[in-house]
Amino acid sequence: MSWIENRFEEGLIITSVDWAINWARKSSVWPMTFGLACCAIEMMAYGASRFDVDRFGAGAFRATPRQSDLMIVAGTVTYKMASRVRRLYNQMPDPKYVIAMGACTVGGGPYFKYGYHVVKGVDLVVPVDVYVPGCPPRPEALIEGFMRVQDKIQAQTIGLPRGSKEAAKKHNIPVPAPAAV
């Protein structure tokens, strides 16, 4: 028996502020709908009742970046779309997270070698927290990626939030220009 047992009255919860705030953040993640290609179909299946992402607190997809804190980039990112992806990312409130879903998003996919119009990975445009590979990845893989985002949220500290100036200096990533043909 440890010295702390039976020292507090019943119903008293002892925790740290970091743990409580991060628990609330990870239990109420608001993803943004951002489907660019065929991976968006699997993202829609992820949000359907069969996989029940409401149990993770992420069932309500938002269509506006100002109300979301998770961007799931699903599909091929072209150079024309890269500036829009970056603009939407900049409009999201801090802390914000990004999941790169699918082979095209992660590294260019089948367009990697000869696709002059395709960004060779969305991490050249926005900082990515979790990569979900596949062509297209199954909803179970996206759930696994979402759980990794929840783990990252739970491990954060309030002292230096991800959106602070120190963290922003690390992720000052310009939008890439199209490759010369």
Could you characterize what this model shows?
The chain has a 4-stranded parallel β-sheet with strand order 1-2-3-4. The mean pLDDT is 80. The chain has helices spanning 17-26, 39-47, 79-91, 103-107, 139-155, 165-170; strands at residues 31-32, 70-74, 97-101, 130-132. It has one domain (29-170): Rossmann fold. With 181 residues, it is α/β, with parallel strands linked by helices. Helix 1 (17-26) packs antiparallel against helix 5 and helix 2 (39-47) packs across helix 5. The N and C termini lie far apart (72 Å).
Summarize the structure.
By secondary structure, this protein is of the alpha/beta class.
Overall 3D geometry? elongated
The percent of residues in helical segments reads: 25-40%
- For the secondary structure, the number of strands is 4
Low-pLDDT segments, ≥5 res: none
Structural class comes to alpha/beta
Quote the distance from N terminus to C terminus. 72 Å
- What's the CATH architecture? 3-Layer(aba) Sandwich
**Rg result:** 19 Å
Q: How would a textbook summarize the main sheet?
A: 4 strands, parallel
Number of helices: 6
Strand order of the largest sheet: 1-2-3-4
Spell out the helices and strands N to C: HEHEHEHEHH
The level 1 CATH classification is Alpha Beta
- Tell me the domain tally: 1
Strand residue content? 5-15%
> If you consult CATH, what is the topology?
Rossmann fold
Q: Indicate the mean pLDDT.
A: 80
State the main characteristics.
181 residues; alpha/beta; Rossmann fold; four-stranded parallel beta sheet; 6 helices; 8% strand; elongated
